[in-house]
Amino acid sequence: MLAQSGGATAVINASAAGVISEAIASKSFNKILCAHFGMNGILKEDFFDVSDLSSESLELLEKTPASAFGSCRYKLPKFEDDEDIYRTIAKIFDRHNVSCLLYNGGNDSMDTCNKLSKYFDKTGFPCKVIGVPKTVDNDLVKTLYCPGYGSASKYIATTIEELALDTSVYEVGRITVCEIMGRDTGWLTASCAVASLSGKGPDLIYLPENDFEIDAFLKDAETIYRKKGHCLVAVAEGIRTDKGYVGAKETIDSFNHVQLGGVANKLTNLISLQLGINTRAIDLNLPQRAAAHILSLRDQQDAFKCGKRAVQLALEGQSGIMVSIGEDNDNTVYGEVQLSEVANAVKSVPKDYVSNDGAHISEKFFDYILPLIKGEVQLQYKYGIPHYFDSSKLKKL
Amino acid sequence: MLAQSGGATAVINASAAGVISEAIASKSFNKILCAHFGMNGILKEDFFDVSDLSSESLELLEKTPASAFGSCRYKLPKFEDDEDIYRTIAKIFDRHNVSCLLYNGGNDSMDTCNKLSKYFDKTGFPCKVIGVPKTVDNDLVKTLYCPGYGSASKYIATTIEELALDTSVYEVGRITVCEIMGRDTGWLTASCAVASLSGKGPDLIYLPENDFEIDAFLKDAETIYRKKGHCLVAVAEGIRTDKGYVGAKETIDSFNHVQLGGVANKLTNLISLQLGINTRAIDLNLPQRAAAHILSLRDQQDAFKCGKRAVQLALEGQSGIMVSIGEDNDNTVYGEVQLSEVANAVKSVPKDYVSNDGAHISEKFFDYILPLIKGEVQLQYKYGIPHYFDSSKLKKL
């Protein structure tokens, strides 16, 4: 049983393709199921049967963004508080002879995965639980990086490079503020520094890991604008001053995270009012995680291999772990880490990846990111646009 | 002399490459110059000398978005009102022996081009003036379509396809409103309908050509949301009710156009307040015109050929015309049209390209657009992102 969870990425389906193709190749399973809408589908016994998915379909799935089987944002209660839901899941799994659950998600999803695994352990229920890492945010601990990050970074760095060209065409331009995903960590925002390697990068980059000082920002942006005639600023949605999030709104999501938005708008309003300089806010928004038309080959292959490795680990009899990515003498190693170590934990951008003034990225970061955005994936095109997997043709159990 | 004018496109430099390579090949010019920042560079005698640009550089230029030589939004006064500026230009052109001016822009730029051409005619100044069409908006009259539109459309349709996948992953999703460029015409917004051909398109599409009715929109969006669990809406920035632009702000640009923005935000606020449904606003913003990482091959080749044809027309002794694109028995024909006929005129999306309910696109539109977004351009990659032309290495005169 595979379940996809949390916000989609451009390569989450590459992991699914890795899981499904390895499960088929292993000949160890009667049926291969995917839950429709993640945990919600498990609870409703709403499953796709992908046991016979053709290799052509798997190849298309591997290059298709967003969760082909549907996703969820499901928060499992502690089993000390409410054991009923755990019993229900065990009953459903028992009914369908589910011998292993592969749960593909980020740190919130690994919490769900961890709780379920512990319950199965405690009750002796014979189902392995393996986490498959997935997040554009790259904030999972105990793994060198996360599938999803490389492709999102390639898209973001490319978009910023193109925006740097576009926003410098006029003699007297603007201060352009570009908002990039990242509530708690600046991994995605940092990625746009890659465009600076060819001189087409942002002038200023601000991550949530560093205190944001509005006056210093306005001064720096104005200085650059006066000198160059334009200024391109990249900010993470989660940047904060000592008073809190710059882009804070009042809403709270189901995991008690403050929902952010509008950082770029807030900063451009300040630029307008305090500096009187022409300005434009750009929010890269959902395309950051959904754009599969410029996949990183490395990222796509990593995602596939993580899925594949998860099946192998389950067949080796392991449970309660997440597949992790590491390096050994320049070789990529797909290892494992205890779910309890990754659940809810957050990996920040290290201090030495940020420049001394806190307003750009240091050289050291490039050694980290350049391998992750390497290589391109050739897509099929139909009607002039990428031809993606069609979930509506999937077979229900 | 080549000048780039107006907002950039992903293929404006392909036209420049067409102009420069044809000018070099013709061996008819002592020097090939490009004005830095369009008309502003002409007035300051600030020119790049591209006479010796290598074929490698030209090939890179052909795949690079945004105006490599800088652009302008210059409004030339009527020469009856202020002849001085015309005299200045003639003096500068005389000093540099400028025998022809190729002006690459949209309908505002063709106005500048037309006025200058008429002045040169009237005064017998020996400089040909030829317009090269360029606009993502596709709103130039007397040409079947405009270079820039195909690539922007390919990017928009792809992005909407990916957003359709991303916004349908949850069982209970949102109403997502996506704002697309187009103040007066809906060409770009219409393009996203291409994603519908494979079932991954927007549920509702609204163009500025049709009266927008807020109540009908809210009703339709809610009906779709209640049925599917999510709804994806594409709106042109310029949609208007009988009271005016939905996204109107108070600012006016140098051509007296009302500056728009925030349509998606306004509509999502209404959805929140009146329907109480989760919603998200997405503004595709500048990447629509700047994204060259997913160029339309047809568009890029058209842009190149329009540039090339402009040089040929000038050498044939023509002036006061813009290169136009037409069709003859399924063959593309690069013809010409009088500048006075295109200056300031606007071509709307025909009524029969819109569905009867005014909330989607009709079949007929696909015959028009599909050829324009056909084919992909292979880019060079460096540091994992597209390798674009470096304007900072250009030689000044």
Description of the molecule:
Two copies of one chain form a homodimer. The first copy, chain A, is α/β, with parallel strands linked by helices and 397 residues long. Chain A has helices at residues 12-26, 38-44, 55-61, 84-95, 107-123, 149-166, 187-191, 214-228, 263-275, 287-290, 297-315, 339-342, 363-369; strands at residues 2-4, 33-35, 47-49, 100-105, 128-133, 175-180, 204-206, 231-236, 240-241, 244-245, 248-252, 258-260, 279-283, 321-328, 331-338, 381-382, 385-386. In chain A, helix 1 (12-26) crosses helix 11 (297-315). Chain A starts with a strand and ends in an 11-residue tail after the last strand. The model of chain A has no long low-confidence stretch (mean pLDDT 95).
Characteristic terms for this protein:
homodimer, 397 residues, alpha/beta, 5-stranded mixed sheet, 4-stranded parallel sheet, 13 helices, elongated
Task: Explain the layout of strands and helices.
The structure is a homodimer of 397-residue chains.
Chain A: E1 2-4, H1 12-26, E2 33-35, H2 38-44, E3 47-49, H3 55-61, H4 84-95, E4 100-105, H5 107-123, E5 128-133, H6 149-166, E6 175-180, H7 187-191, E7 204-206, H8 214-228, E8 231-236, E9 240-241, E10 244-245, E11 248-252, E12 258-260, H9 263-275, E13 279-283, H10 287-290, H11 297-315, E14 321-328, E15 331-338, H12 339-342, H13 363-369, E16 381-382, E17 385-386
Parallel strand pairs in A: 1-4, 4-5, 5-14, 6-8, 6-13, 7-8
Antiparallel strand pairs in A: 2-3, 9-10, 11-12, 14-15, 16-17
Helix pairs in contact in A: 1-3, 1-11
